[in-house]
Write a structure and sequence with these properties.
Structural class: alpha/beta
CATH superfamily of the largest domain: Alpha-D-Glucose-1,6-Bisphosphate, subunit A, domain 3
Radius of gyration: 23 Å
Distance between the termini: 53 Å
Number of helices: 18
Oligomer: single chain
Bound molecules: 1-O-phosphono-alpha-D-glucopyranose, zinc ion
Strand content: 25-35%
Shape: globular
Number of domains: 3
CATH topology of the largest domain: Alpha-D-Glucose-1,6-Bisphosphate, Chain A, domain 3
Strand order of the largest sheet: 2-6-5-3-4-9-8
Length: 544
């Protein structure tokens, strides 16, 4: 057993995004690839000697192998203590919780979120800092720069740690603590939500729920919380074992990929409540009987009813949504007399607002919802929030949402994704749109009159930083909108996202089918962006 300094040479493609470094498993399996990136992290995050970090991942293929490498590198780099989730399991929200609760230096999360897993799938490494949130851009830039010049990494040559046994181990000077990845997270949830009330509902025999772990990280959490702690019958959690390849599915909780859950909730004897999370546990989907709650509505409903939940009954300081998320939550903020911030896409933009105490709840249309309890979005938190509301209100999911629409109006909302486009045609489409913005203002398009047409930019109210070019917004009088942007997270080709929103206060017209209600806007979007002509696509690849 000894510390080794291993010579290496830089790779040129290790620039992490806010969701970390995400690549094919085969890329990470190249000799030195993972080692270089991890050493680059250790080299730039400041004083690490004697400090504690947390490690874990979503259980995907290569999780365990990568953990063993990182543990031995941590020991060789002088880290004092490494906490590792039992079985190598740690959800993204639980990592954020553990870092904050124990005042850790940070944590390394192994996940490629909702991207497919397995030997041919994706893998990812993400470093979260001491506030529990993802590394900010200045940190990821330092990691990247370091990765371009790295020539050695440190490795402790020692036997593998048994990750399936709770307790402490030692590698050289470093303690490796294999800990229960659920305990701290469950305790935090118990502080926020009324567990007695939820237990009452789930054991009443009159209420059924189903939770889809999508063969990914949240299964163990959901079983501990819903089945063991809250008394829901065994089997309430489906697909609850984290599998190396997620059972071949895309662990993304939406109407397309959570097919099994969607079918159960559409069936004749559907349970009252259905929910799912993604690969690493930060996304959520909420379903009632034959009823889908859009993530934008979900955020608005949670905010409007937050006083019914113990952790939020003291009031909300403010709300925030990403720009493409529907404006439903803005109206809730207005009615409460609190601010609502509109940020660019990506959870990182909420971080400063949360740290400054300006925002209590926030969310994105992309199935991400969260609060100031941690610095990541949190799938199970959203599910528990809904369950708490259902227990207090004693009404169905559908009734709660419909009552919300009656009070605030309904935002018909849908996102149309065109995936795997050629980069040139996608960029051409966006530049054509940008050029046509000035001509659109005040223009009448069918029944809609354009009020604002711009390319969204954002000045962070805390640190003053400016982010430009964050998506094309066409806002019509009467608060309907079309938003266009290109995905920043895809790994193959370009993805065009078209976000459609129509605000409707007429009660008679609130129960139309969403795509029908949006059909005029869909046509307008196609015309102004020339989607068919420029992409050759007749229809979107995914509609959510
Ligand atoms: C997508 C979502 C965005 C989310 C991000 C990470 O990014 O749209 O809301 O924050 O994944 O989960 P995009 O691919 O659109 O850039
Ligand atoms: Zn995720």
């Amino acid at each position: 057993m000894s510390i080794q300094k291993v010579s290496t040479r830089p790779f040129k493609d290790q620039r992490p995004g806010t969701s970390g470094l995400r690549k094919k498993v085969t890329t990470f399996q190249q000799p030195y690839y993972l080692e270089n990136f991890v050493q680059s992290i250790f080299d730039v995050i400041g004083e690490i000697k004697g400090k504690t970090i947390v490690l874990g991942g979503d259980g995907r293929f290569y999780n365990r192998e990568a953990l063993q490498i990182i543990i031995k590198m941590a020991a060789a780099n002088g880290i004092g203590r490494t906490m590792v989730g039992l079985g190598g399991i740690l959800s993204t929200p639980a990592a954020s919780c553990v870092i904050r609760k124990h005042g850790l230096l940070g944590g390394i999360i192994l996940s490629a979120s909702h991207n497919p897993g397995g030997p041919k799938g994706d893998f990812g490494v993400k470093y979260n800092i001491e506030n529990g949130g993802p590394s900010p851009e200045h940190v990821t830039e330092c990691i990247y720069k370091r990765s371009l010049e790295i020539d050695t990494y440190r490795f402790f040559d020692a036997p593998d740690v048994d990750l399936d046994q709770l307790g402490e181990n030692r590698i050289g000077e470093m303690v490796v603590e294999v800990f229960d990845p659920v305990a701290d997270y469950l305790q935090l949830m118990e502080r926020l939500f009324d567990f007695d009330r939820m237990r009452g509902l789930l054991s009443s025999g009159e209420f059924n729920m189903v939770y889809d772990g999508m063969n990914a990280v949240t299964g163990p959490y959901a079983r501990a919380i819903f089945e063991r702690r809250l008394g829901a019958p065994p089997g309430t959690v489906i697909n609850g074992d984290p599998l190396l390849d997620f059972g071949g599915i895309h662990p993304d909780p939406n109407l397309k990929h959570a097919r099994e859950l969607v079918e159960i909730m559409r069936s004749e004897n559907s349970p009252d409540f259905g929910a799912a999370s993604d690969g690493d546990g930060d996304r959520n989907m909420i379903l009632g009987r034959r009823f889908f709650v859009t993530p934008s509505d979900s955020l608005a409903v949670l905010a409007a009813n937050a006083d019914l939940v113990p952790g939020y009954s003291g009031g909300l300081s403010g709300l925030a949504r990403s720009m493409p998320t529907s404006m439903a939550v803005d109206r809730v903020a207005e009615s409460m007399g609190i601010p609502c911030y509109e940020t660019p896409t990506g959870w990182k933009f909420f971080g400063n607002l949360l740290d400054a105490g300006k925002v209590t709840l926030c969310g994105e249309e992309s199935f991400g919802t969260g609060s100031d309890h941690i610095r990541e979005k949190d799938g199970l938190w959203a599910v528990l929030f809904w369950l708490n509301l259902l227990a207090v209100k004693g009404e169905s999911v559908e009734r709660i949402v419909q009552a919300h629409w009656r009070k605030f109006g309904r935002d018909f909302y849908s996102r149309h994704d065109y995936e795997g486009l050629e980069a040139d045609s996608a960029n051409g489409l966006m530049s054509h749109l940008r050029d046509s913005l000035p001509g659109l203002v005040e223009k009448r398009l069918g029944n809609y009159e354009v009020e604002i047409a711009d390319n969204f930019s954002y000045t962070d109210p805390i640190d003053g930083s400016l982010s430009t070019g964050q998506g094309i917004r066409i806002i019509f009088r009467g608060a309907s909108r079309i938003v266009f942007r290109l995905s920043g997270t895809g790994t193959e080709g370009a993805t065009l996202r078209v976000y459609l929103e129509r605000y409707e206060t007429d009660l008679e017209r609130q129960d139309q089918d969403t795509q029908e209600a949006l059909s005029d806007l869909i046509t307008i979007a196609n015309n102004i962006a020339q989607i068919r002509a420029r992409t050759g696509r007749e229809a979107p690849s995914v509609i959510t």
